[in-house]
Amino acid sequence: MVQKPAPDSTRRSEKSRRAIYDAALALVVEVGYAKATIEGIAARAGVGKQTIYRWWPSKADVLLEAFLDLSEQYAEAVAPPGQEVQQEYGIPDTGDLAADLKYVLRATVDELVDPKFEAPSRALAAEGVVDAQFATQVVSRLLEPQLQLYVQRLRAAQNAGDLRRDIDPRIALELFVSPLAQRWLQRSGPISYEYTDTLVDYALGGLAPR
Amino acid sequence: MVQKPAPDSTRRSEKSRRAIYDAALALVVEVGYAKATIEGIAARAGVGKQTIYRWWPSKADVLLEAFLDLSEQYAEAVAPPGQEVQQEYGIPDTGDLAADLKYVLRATVDELVDPKFEAPSRALAAEGVVDAQFATQVVSRLLEPQLQLYVQRLRAAQNAGDLRRDIDPRIALELFVSPLAQRWLQRSGPISYEYTDTLVDYALGGLAPR
């Protein structure tokens, strides 16, 4: 069955949506989250502000969705040709826990230093540091879903006998995820593949002599 | 030899300095780092702006010193009676590495959730997320000196045979320091003594079965 082309109104909406996302991200980078307004986003996107209010209840909603959309674009851009993009960066399970974790952390390094990604990510993160309500949304919609992918991979490792059964995976993942996050957020050290590989080795093997 | 009372001008300067610190911290909490100005700090402290420029070359310098001063006040307030305050929160070395690390991390938990400390800390941290130049100052003057105390304690542990000799202490400390930092910065999970104790146990013992 041949798919009919989308009607004009749908195509126009999709185009507006993309323009609004782009405008929202550009504006938050330029003036910061606090000073970005729905009016400012609308003006920059060349749409009426009612168009925005029709689709999103608040500035936070537009920006979080714009950022989610950017993440998806990023995943599509880096996916190997012919390979389907997994919706939320599923963590591979090759049976080699250390290798799988290193693989995903290297991909995260790439994303964190990508200029297109970095500026809006920083603007959103900075707002979350001072605004508890916004942080709750960032955590529940962006951060925690990503961390839960590590939880799933660590649970599989527990079942396979590659990870201690008496540990809480939700805390365990922070031993290699949080150092990278802190270096990026606070610029407290350089970020590289070698660094994240080291974190995985230290976390799995432990710092105390065996 | 009886110490002479400080001359009026010195006492007046000390009072002005304290008023300027208080004004700087209050202002950055209220309007954020970007909108806080030397003029605003001077007006709030009841001093001329030349008084501030005589002592500090920039807004960043006033705020970083005000924050360092707050940290010292905090250390004095929580020090046991009769015990001298160590200048930079030296990490104890009782010979029990896990216990010493847990002790210091519990003190950090107390500080991070103290309302007097939290608001200015968040304002400074948020600015560092988006402003690389300011972040460099925060790291070199506030964060890295604290992390180097962990490096010293971990080196002592390596010499005592309590820590693997083949690891880099500057990275190793991040396994228990950074998770707490990320939960605080991004509000990605609750902070408690039990949590930081767990981080130390996981980091030292490792996540893989022994």
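The radius of gyration of chain B is 20 Å.
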